[in-house]
Design brief:
Length: 132
C-alpha cells in the first residue's frame, strides 16, 4: 500500500449508501470478478434464484447498463459472494435467504436495467453449469 492510499473500510464496502463511491465500486468489482463464478458453480443447484443472480451478473457486465445501476448491482453481487453475511450460507434451507432478499430488492428496484438478453444469457449459463 502506498503512503497516500487509504485502507478500505469493510463496513463502507457493505453499506448500500456507499455503493456508488468509486473506491467501493472497485473493491466490489474485484470481489465479484474473483468470487462470482466459483460460488455460482457451487450453489446453482441449491438456490432457486440462481437465474436471477446470473441475470444481474450479465447486466452488471453490460457496457450499456448505466453506471449507477452497475454500482448497485456489483454491491449486491459482492454481498452474494461474501463468505460472511447476515445468515451464513452453510445453514441448509435458510442460509441463502438473505442473499435472495438482496437480489430480489435489487431486481425490484433496477429490474428495468436487466434486459431480455441478460435473462437469456443467464438461462444459457445455468444450463451449462447444471450439465457439468
Amino acid at each position: 500500500m502506498t503512503d497516500n492510499a487509504k485502507p478500505i473500510d469493510l463496513e463502507a464496502v457493505l453499506d448500500p449508501a456507499q455503493a456508488l463511491v468509486p473506491a467501493v465500486q472497485r473493491v466490489n468489482e474485484t470481489r465479484v470478478s474473483r468470487g462470482f463464478w466459483p460460488k455460482i458453480r457451487r450453489t446453482a443447484a441449491r438456490i432457486p434464484f440462481a437465474d436471477q443472480v446470473l441475470s444481474v451478473w450479465f447486466a452488471a457486465r453490460d457496457p450499456e447498463t448505466p453506471a449507477t445501476a452497475k454500482g448497485l448491482m456489483l454491491g449486491a453481487l459482492a454481498y452474494f459472494v461474501m463468505p460472511i453475511d447476515a445468515i451464513p450460507d452453510i445453514f441448509a434451507g435458510i442460509g441463502f435467504t438473505d442473499d435472495a432478499a438482496v437480489i430480489a430488492a435489487l431486481i425490484a428496484t433496477l429490474g428495468a436495467n436487466i434486459k431480455r438478453r441478460h435473462r437469456d444469457a443467464a438461462a444459457e449459463a445455468l444450463k451449462r453449469i447444471q450439465s457439468d
